[in-house]
Design a protein that fits this description.
Elements lengths: L10 E5 L28 H13 L4 E5 L9 H9 L6 E6 L4 H11 L3 E5 L5 H8 L4 H14 L5 E4 L10 H10 L3 E5 L18 H9 L4 E3 L10 E5 L5 E5 L12 E4 L4 E3 L8 E2 H5 L5 H13 L25
Parallel strand pairs: 1-2, 1-10, 2-3, 3-4, 4-5, 5-6, 6-9
Antiparallel strand pairs: 7-8, 8-9, 10-11, 11-12
The structure holds guanosine-5'-triphosphate, S-adenosylmethionine and iron/sulfur cluster (2 copies).
């Protein structure tokens, strides 16, 4: 289905939990997080109904996210049920990788297509500073397991922050000379005012590109398929690719193709706007499938044309990223 700006909305991001086993400084505060009470979290039955409704109105790709999706019990079964929807949407997962070594095999068997793993440093010590937890070796084991079972092409999401880890952009980029991974550098987004880093810590797309361009000759790679958020490059002849997600500086809103559902049952038509629709109330009001599809269509028509970061009246929203799912 198309929204009011002619964009085809065929991608659903489903956040299955707001809980996480890390505390990345750019995503959530260390203290004072109030998790949604259990009864406010959509059940897997409810999430599946939403996914089925979305698939019925044209969604072709469903990304499961969190918080950290792998901390929710029963996720593998849920993935299997999503993958079995009659329209056979592509099912993908975004994870911090901590539990991936354990779940990669079962997830692949359940029908998951591939995973995106978030990793912001290649140094164990820095990992602890950035995430306020240990677990670097587990994430590396998770990456190896994902590759081994074929949850590929593997994409790695890295958020460079000036003065913190931006000096590792080159090290990450060099990985693509050896491995068929897509390393995606994401601009730090001021999505909540509750984070350790301010917008001044941003490391914009142009600086990211400059930080890897001197390593070897770089060429642009045309994108396959519609509506990805990354601009793609590769070192000439390298097996892997480099992506830059210029979420703030050169926004890609004109090709936005996505709808988000939060774990507490709100539809969020735009990542950067707190205007949300109460899907949970609808689901729990006894609405039938046609009413659910109408609701999702209304949410699609409520999508704004673009984000307003940089505008004078822009204020970061109330939800930290872990409550949205990225
Ligand atoms: N500004 C903006 N950023 C987004 C949007 N969707 C995803 N991102 C950011 O892009 C980063 C990567 O997101 P992923 O969860 O890996 O999903 P994806 O990039 O859509 O995944 P692919 O299907 O593999 O291209 C995250 O930091 C997201 O917050 C969006 O609609 N707008
Ligand atoms: C919120 S996490 C949820 C899934 C999972 N826990 C993970 O880390 O992959 C999804 C993505 O959002 C990104 N993210 C979180 N906060 C961000 C911020 N302030 N700016 C840019 N990206 C951010 C993370 O790096 C991650 O790739
Ligand atoms: S980025 Fe992912 S892993 Fe890190 S705190 Fe946020 S939800 Fe957790
Ligand atoms: S910022 Fe909003 S409108 Fe722009 S691409 Fe992201 S979700 Fe779509």
């Amino acid at each position: 289905m198309r929204d009011n700006f002619g964009r085809v909305i065929d991608y659903l991001r489903l956040s299955v939990t707001d809980r996480c086993n890390l505390r990345c400084r750019y995503c959530m505060p260390e203290q004072g997080i109030e998790h949604f009470p259990h009864r406010q979290i959509l059940t897997y039955e409810e999430l599946l109904r939403v996914a089925a409704g979305a698939a019925a109105i044209g969604v072709r790709k469903i990304r499961v996210t969190g918080g950290e999706p792998l901390v929710r019990k029963g996720l593998v079964d849920f993935i299997a049920r999503l993958a079995a929807l009659p329209q056979r949407p592509e099912i993908t997962l975004t994870t911090n990788g901590l539990l991936l070594a354990q779940y990669a095999g079962p997830l692949k068997e359940a029908g998951l297509s591939r995973v995106n793993v978030s990793l912001d440093t290649l140094r164990a010590e820095r990992f602890e500073q950035l995430t306020r937890r240990t677990g670097f070796a587990q994430v590396m084991a998770g990456l190896a397991a994902a590759e081994q079972v074929g949850l590929t092409p593997l994409k790695i999401n890295m958020v460079p922050i000036a003065g913190v880890n931006a000096d590792e952009v080159g090290d990450f980029a060099r990985l693509t000379l050896e491995r068929p991974w897509e390393i995606r550098f994401i601009e730090f987004m001021p999505v909540s005012d509750n984070l350790d880093y301010s917008p001044e810590s941003r490391f914009p797309a142009d600086d990211i590109i400059a930080a890897f361009s001197h390593i070897a000759p770089v060429e642009a790679v045309p994108r396959h398929g519609p509506g990805g958020v990354a601009r793609l490059f590769r070192f000439v002849g390298a097996p892997g690719r480099l992506g830059v997600i210029p979420a703030v500086s050169h926004h890609f809103c004109h090709e936005c193709n996505r709808l988000r559902v939060t774990s507490d049952g709100r539809v969020r038509p735009c990542l950067f706007s707190d205007d949300e629709l109460d899907l949970r109330a609808l689901l729990r009001s006894g609405a039938d499938d046609e009413q659910l599809r109408d609701f999702l269509r209304r949410a699609i028509t409520a999508k704004p044309e673009k984000h307003h970061i940089g505008a004078e009246d822009f204020r970061p929203g109330a939800r930290p990223m872990q409550g949205i799912g990225g």
